Amino acid sequence: MAGNFYQRGGVNAEKLLSSVTRKDSKWGAVTIGGAIGHDLAVIPKSELFFDLDHGFKISGTTFVRGLELVYSQHWYWYQSSRILALSGAAILYLPREWTFSLGSTGARSTFTGTVADWRPSGITRLGFPLAGWGEKQLSGNIFFAVGTEDFGQVDQIGRFASQTYGGGIRYQLSPRQDLAGFASYQKRTQNRSDLASGLTYAIHF
Fold it and tell me: Looking at the domain assignment, is residue 25 inside a domain?
């Protein structure tokens, strides 16, 4: 379970998210979940999603230790629009705890009084260790993403293309606790930009 809080243009909104994951020897990990929000027209009123995550151990090579494939579908319901996001990703596990991932998403948006429109996006991420002190581990990542979006009736921005640069850091306090943060800069067409940052504390059971 998670709670997210947003401040946008002087408006405060929040949502509650819940999900459950089951591991299966044939299908891998299957996750289903949803969210409900006090949206105030800036975040989705409700969400529904599911993920399939399956990993493979690769032998006979010293460069790639494993491969993880992820597929997800996520539905978002706003006050005046509906969005379906179909995503796929591949994660390569490399020596010395490095990882490299590639992902793509196709988003289908439908606004009131308009026809449905598909928009693509993609992301690549490199993860790497920084330091370790027994159970305590410090790791980081950098990422780059490109995409096109159409939020003309939600943000009054219109259609735009973007490039996003960012990175994050994760501090594993113990096998059951970790602290993570990220920051990103997005450059958009029409001479617009967006800065984002976040902080997460997780407890694993």
Answer: no
- Give how many domains the chain has, as a whole number: 1
The structure tokens listed for 185 are: 């800069």
**What 3-state DSSP class applies to 76?**
strand
Contact yes or no for 36/15 (Cβ under 8 A): yes
At 95, phi and psi to the nearest 5? Answer: -60, 160
For residue 117, what are the domain limits? 52-203
* DSSP reduced 3-state for 59: coil
Question: What CATH number is attached to the domain comprising 136?
Answer: 2.40.160
Residue 23 lies in a domain: no
List, for residues 56-113, the tens digit of each pLDDT value: 988 877 789 999 999 999 999 988 888 999 999 999 999 999 999 999 999 898 877 7
- Residue 157 resides in a domain: yes
Q: What does the alpha-carbon distance between residue 90 and residue 94 come to, in Å, rounded to a whole number?
A: 13
96: DSSP letter: G
DSSP for 97-115 reads: G-EEEEEEEEEEEEETTS-
| Residues written for the chain | 205
pTM, two decimal places: 0.80
From CA 123, how far away is CA 140, in angstroms rounded?
16
CA distances from 4 to 7, 16, 43, 161 (A): 10, 7, 10, 26
In a domain, 11, yes or no: no
Q: Which residues of 64-103 are buried (b: 16+ CB within 10 A; e: fewer)?
A: ebeebebebebbbebeebebbbebebebbbbeeeebebeb
